Structure prediction request, 56 residues.
Amino acid sequence: MGSYKIIIPNCGYLVWGLLILIFRPIGVRVWAELMIVIFNINDNPAKIKDYFYNKK
Prediction:
């Protein structure tokens, strides 16, 4: 069981590094998509306001 530490020392760091390499880009993508959604939600009321206030 403990013999893998002889072959790969600090294997915990290796696992954490691989997990970060896999999940950090996914987290960044989710954050970016969330920002896009929030700003698109903000644009719709502005378009409605412009439509009704500029209508003469």
About this structure: The chain has a mean pLDDT of 80. The CA atoms of residues 40 and 46 lie 10 Å apart. Helices lie at 4-7, 11-53.
